[in-house]
Amino acid sequence: MPRDPLASMPYFGRCELTLAEFQDAAEAAVARIPPELAQAMTNVAFFIEERYNPGPNEDPQTSLLGLYEGTPLTERDGWWDAGSLPDRITLYRQTILDSCLSREEVIDEITVTVVHEIAHHFGIDDERLHALGWG
Does the pTM of the predicted model rise above 0.90? Predict the structure, then answer.
């Protein structure tokens, strides 16, 4: 029987990073944010979940890599921070792993996703992010 030439190549879903490795990569991505931007980020918490769980009115096939939930800095009033819960940035570990072919690609995708979601915190929308190459 002929050998499958793709058998030794990584493919979607085969790439694995432990949760600890994934967390380390996410922390490294956040650490690469320029200091002036990092200092401007206020009241933001980062989370890692396995997959996005779409709501009842969403497409069940939704496969988000990350999600920003909160009030962008451009929309906050002066009193906004008093007692407010932190904004949330969530990375979806298994969805990112499933979309990549190698560890290097996973680490790159984590960085792109972190930058993308932090940009939402600063009020940058998806259209602008796509135009900048961070879509």
Answer: no
In a domain, 61, yes or no: yes
Residue pLDDT tens, the chain, 135 long: 444 443 444 444 567 889 999 999 999 999 999 899 888 887 899 999 999 988 888 887 778 999 999 989 888 776 656 667 889 999 999 999 999 989 999 999 999 999 999 999 999 988 988 888 877
- Range(s) of the domain holding residue 89: 19-70+84-131
Residue 98, in any domain of the structure: yes
DSSP code per residue over the chain: ----TTTTS--TTT----HHHHHHHHHHHHHTS-HHHHHH--SEEEEEESS----TTS-TT---SEEEES--GGG--TTTTTTPPPEEEEEEHHHHHHT-SSHHHHHHHHHHHHHHHHHHHTT--HHHHHHTT--
Residue 13, domain member (yes or no): no
Residue 8 in any domain: the answer is no
